Amino acid sequence: MLQNMLDYVRIALYTLLIVLGFFIFQAWEKDHPPVEPTAVTAQAESPSTDRFVPQPTSTTQSSASSQASSGTIAAVKSAPGQIVEVKTDVLDVSIDTRGGDIVETKLLQYPESLHSNTPLILLNDDSTTRYVAESGLLGKQGPDTSQEQALYSTPQSSYALDPSANTLSVTLTWQNKDGLKVNKVYTFTRNSYEIGVRYDIANQSNLPWEGNLYTQLIRTNTPPASHGGFVSLATYFGAGISSPEKRFEKITFKQMQEKNFNQTFQGGWAAMIQHYFISAWIPKQDANSTYYTRTQDGFYTIGMISPMITAAPGANVSTEAKLYSGPAIGDELKKTAPWLQLTIDYGWFWFISLPIFWLMQTIYDLIGNWGWAIIFVTVIIKLIFYPLSAKSYRSMSSLKRLQPKIEALKERYGDDKQKMTQATLDLYRQEKVNPMSGCLPILIQIPVFIALYWVLVESVQLRQAPFLLWIHDLSQQDPYYILPLLMGISMFAQQRLNPPPPDPVQAKVMMAMPLLFTVLFAKFPAGLMLYWFVNNSLSLLQQWHIMRRLDKATNGKK
Predict the structure, then answer these.
(1) What is the mean pLDDT of the chain?
(2) Topology of 57-345 in CATH?
(3) CA 312 to chain CA centroid, nearest Å
(4) Cβ neighbours of residue 527 closer than 8 Å, sequence gap 6 or more
(5) pTM here?
């Protein structure tokens, strides 16, 4: 019978939502283990002394491409230099004078956990979780060679951004006995995670200097404590590259092990990506750089080599790049490099996630609370879909009103299913009822639900964002399961307004749906449960209002 078929369709849609929720639940469980692992901490007493630099077949080759194509990286074990600490309003950075590499970044505005005063450590030089940003000048005369990194000097061991200044420059100096001098200048900017790196080469020797700038990110395959491992739905952990052909191309650690990446193209960037945070090297966008990946001794490297740089005797030349190491904030990434914001992966329904997040951000800027932003976004979404939902609810209300007539048709035609189906269709046409429109709210809810899930999971702005009372972090589960329970109650109340399926088994399945959803989504982000509870409550009020108007209209005709 047609009514049975429609009930099966509705159950199938709910089942699809449950299956999707189950997969997302698995990802969420792995992303938020019940036992909080120990956060990465600095291990100043035992830093890694491994340094991996590109190893050209000849330091006098004329192109970066030929240097990178050798497919090797030299492992250089050098004694560490002195650690230089640089502090701005948002970053606490440690620079090793051996190579002038950034070996630690602390994100001062991002605590490692809720209610913690300890800043999150992104880059670190611990021997087991190493994740550093290296850069250097490869040349036959130095400062860096495939056997040894330069040892720089600096007049101070610590620097701090002056409260009245917007920028801070830190200069590291290297020179050899032949008259070659190199200044490696780091530039830090207030309220920015972008770090400029410039090399000033003064060649006062009698020979021309030739070399290449290389920049690279090196890390172990050790996901941060908050990162999940579910293959298809967990947030991405790995590397990425941007090129003119592909705005954003993921390069997993497994792909690095299987094959080295080697491509030369103009502009672009190379990044290491993890949940909420990213580090990326960006070369000069008008230059052709050779990008590469390497895997060696448990370390994964992604980087680039610049074209050949030449400094004639008596000449001064400069080259530069920039490093972003911080939170994955779309607007900041977009300003830093073209398409860098694509590293924020909103999943299948990104085209829905983007406007949802933009709207949430706009509302948050006005009211200053992400929970209320979610509520207002839910109201706006309901208003946008109000005409479709209203039509659907009118249809469902009409179906409920027609139940006595449908029961009368059952008694009239008995087991003659063909005549019963035809009579039911005639009744629907006569009453101008479209039973299929009752499935519309479920169809609309599925993509919005998934899109909002990814907004809550991927947007670092919602990390540790409080709402009201007991909800201190909208990106984590409700600690007392109040919101999931309210969501289940609102779903149950909405079910009571719908016409019950004639099949007793189907009726029991539909009545069990709210309980299944409550249990399944109990550990989902509180922000997602807040959205669903508000959405169900608004739907319930809308459906009740429409049914009341239809009942009045029907009674008025009588």
Answers:
(1) 82
(2) Beta-galactosidase; Chain A, domain 5 (2.70.98)
(3) 46
(4) 370, 371, 374, 456, 462, 465, 467, 474, 475
(5) 0.80
